[in-house]
Design brief:
Alpha-Beta Plaits, 100 residues, four-stranded antiparallel beta sheet, single chain, alpha+beta
């Protein structure tokens, strides 16, 4: 079963493919994604890597604190989102609700 890892401290120039290649040294990578700003397209400095559970544990041990593209990475098992947790979307109402 695949396990998702949170990767923090990603350099702005690191691509999803570069992240995939870096994690491949610890095992088989199912997916690797650098999270980007939806408007500017620039990296937000973190991402997620999905690997088989055994490989994911090895990656945490081997890669946490290692450098990629000049930045030290923080690698940990991703925590599942709690129900009702913000998704980054806004209702754009400004908190005032509708006026009828």
């Amino acid at each position: 079963m695949a396990q998702k890892l949170f990767v923090g401290g990603i350099a702005f120039g690191t691509t999803s493919e570069g992240l995939r290649e870096f994690f491949a040294q610890s095992g088989s990578v199912v997916s690797a994604t650098v999270i980007t700003d939806q408007f500017s397209g620039q990296s937000r400095g973190f991402g997620f890597v999905e690997m088989e559970a055994e490989d994911a544990q090895r990656a945490v041990q081997q890669l946490d604190g290692r450098e990629l593209d000049g930045r030290k990475l923080k690698v940990e098992v991703a925590k599942p989102k709690a129900a009702g947790e913000r998704t980054g979307r806004s209702d754009r109402s400004g908190g005032y609700g509708s006026r009828h």
